[in-house]
Specification:
The complex is a heterodimer of chains A (121) and B (111).
Chain A lengths: L3 E3 L3 E4 L5 E7 L5 E8 L3 E8 L6 E2 L6 E7 L2 E6 L8 E8 L16 E2 L3 E5 L1
Parallel strand pairs in A: 2-11
Antiparallel strand pairs in A: 1-3, 3-8, 4-5, 4-9, 5-6, 7-8, 9-10, 9-11
Chain B lengths: L3 E3 L4 E4 L4 E7 L4 E9 L6 E7 L2 E5 L2 E6 L4 E6 L8 E9 L6 E2 L3 E6 L1
Parallel strand pairs in B: 2-11
Antiparallel strand pairs in B: 1-3, 3-8, 4-5, 4-9, 6-7, 7-8, 9-10, 9-11
Classes of the chains: A mainly beta (121), B mainly beta (111).
Chain lengths: 121, 111
């Protein structure tokens, strides 16, 4: 049974703080993703990674960075948190074998963590 | 215009009702269509996956794709309170681009 865990369920930070969100998966998946989920906007891809130390920008990477030092762990970093980054952050992982035409971002079966609700005040 | 449109609801139905959830899309290149279910305080999980047009059935759930109308549906028969969740449609083009998610429809099934 795939398990994706996120370091915090709820987080409150002040404007300008550096914020780390951590995600760990236990299924030896190659691909990992960070999304944010906002009412009326659905899920939007921030960054994804297809291998250790590899990263690719998603649709809304501005204000974020990521780190993948180990295969099972993918961290999202908010360098200087702002109020417009208040959101639900979801991490996901997938196997390369679930990808359309072997493109990592097109893994149609992604396994999600429970999410971190971040509030920036 | 968003690539994928989904009515956010909320939708409230009595137990046993047939539920119809829908998405429309504008990109005719989409070929792969998914439905994810998200329970409260949980991440989404894949419910059903369909390629191109047609129907796919899994127990009480039926996914339907009408590419000529750019319209997809998820039907839930004999709905149960345990079906109460947010349902998100997601799509991919034939080149395997990024998953594009709808906004999600919040469904509540009342006992």
């Amino acid at each position: 049974d795939v398990k994706v865990t996120q370091s915090s369920r709820y987080l409150v930070k002040r404007t300008g703080e550096k914020v780390f969100l951590e995600c760990v998966q236990d299924m030896d998946h190659e691909n990992m993703f960070w999304y944010r989920q906002d009412p009326g906007l659905g899920l939007r891809l921030i960054y994804f990674s297809y291998d250790v130390k590899m990263k690719e920008k998603g649709d809304i990477p501005e204000g974020y960075s990521v780190s993948r030092e180990k295969k099972e762990r993918f961290s999202l970093i908010l360098e200087s948190a702002s109020t417009n980054q208040t959101s639900m952050y979801l991490c996901a992982s997938s196997s390369i074998w679930g990808a359309i035409r072997r493109r990592v971002e097109s893994s149609y079966e992604q396994y999600f963590g429970p999410g971190t609700r971040l509030t920036v005040t | 215009q968003k690539e994928v449109e989904q009515d956010p609801g909320p939708l409230s139905v009595p137990e046993g009702a047939i539920v119809s959830l829908n998405c429309t899309y504008s990109n005719s290149a989409f070929q792969y269509f998914m439905w994810y279910r998200q329970y409260s305080r949980k991440g989404p999980e894949l419910l059903m996956y369909t390629y191109s047009s047609g129907n796919k059935e899994d127990g009480r759930f039926t996914a339907q794709v009408d590419k000529s109308s750019k319209y997809i549906s998820l039907f839930i028969r004999d709905s149960q309170p345990s079906d109460s969740a947010t349902y998100l449609c997601a799509m991919l083009d034939n080149q395997g681009g990024k998953l594009i998610f709808g906004q999600g429809t919040e469904l509540s099934v009342k006992p």
